[in-house]
Design a protein that fits this description.
Blueprint: E1 15-19, E2 42-52, H1 56-63, E3 70-76, E4 81-82, E5 89-90, E6 93-103, E7 106-116, E8 120-121, H2 125-128, E9 131-151, E10 154-159, H3 182-195, H4 198-201, E11 207-209, E12 212-214, E13 216-217
Antiparallel strand pairs: 1-10, 1-13, 2-9, 3-6, 4-5, 5-8, 6-7, 7-9, 9-10, 11-12
């Protein structure tokens, strides 16, 4: 069973529209157009990090692979101090960084979460002033899609498994607007460019949702 990525913030259910000319069953070695796909039928398209690496030997081997970590600059948690005499609580925060690495012909995503002073109280400020990091690895695997809508111009599909979770906005202070949201940018730039090859990208067609035109979007309330 596919594992959920560990750097989860806000659930992102990915929905993409595909034209009639797409090849839907490449994994099985036979071509099928979107027009031949039926409602709730599954097919594979693209790759994304999914299954968590649990083998200690493999984790040690991946730890030894050089990796240049990237960050979207997000933190999570509450960094405010509750002013209670003798028991002021500093909840701490975490910065999420990642890198894609290759080992023995397979591609993995390295995800590092760095927590500063986790669950720290001012009473133990000296002892808890530590930078604790957690590293996890996920293997890139084919994305399995389920057809949720069938139309004359193609189908709308959603992944069978949750692939990722990201925040809707750049900051908790930002107004909730899909057009200018981080999540829209992430899906149509980061996810789109890394999950699909150039040939696969040609099989996607733009759709209108929330007053915008996108290649990848999230479901509306009516979709659910």
């Amino acid at each position: 069973m596919k594992k959920l990525l560990s750097f989860l913030l806000i659930a992102a259910l990915l929905v993409s529209a595909f034209p009639l000319s797409m090849t839907a069953t490449a994994e099985e070695g036979e071509a099928q157009t979107a027009g031949q796909l039926k409602l709730y039928e599954s097919f594979t398209l693209g790759y994304w990090p999914q299954s968590a690496v649990t083998s200690t030997d493999l984790i040690n081997a991946l730890d030894a692979v050089p990796a240049e970590l990237r960050s979207f600059g997000f933190t999570h948690g509450n960094a405010s101090i509750k002013t209670m005499v003798g028991n002021a609580q500093y909840k701490g925060f975490a910065d999420i960084r990642y890198a894609d690495i290759y080992y023995n012909g397979c591609r993995y995503r390295k995800v590092v979460s760095a927590s500063w002073r986790p669950n720290c109280t001012l009473r133990s400020l000296i002892t808890c002033n530590l930078n604790q990091t957690t590293t996890n690895y996920y293997k890139w695997e084919p994305i399995e899609w389920i057809v949720c809508q069938v139309g004359d111009s193609g189908v709308v599909a959603t992944p069978k498994y949750i692939l990722d979770e990201q925040p809707l906005t750049y900051s908790i202070d930002d107004p909730v607007s899909w057009e200018n949201s981080f999540l829209r940018h992430y899906l149509n730039i980061e996810f789109y460019n890394h999950a699909f090859t150039a040939a696969e990208q040609q099989k996607l067609t733009a759709m209108e949702k929330f007053g915008t035109t996108d290649l990848v979007s999230i479901p509306s309330v009516s979709d659910l």
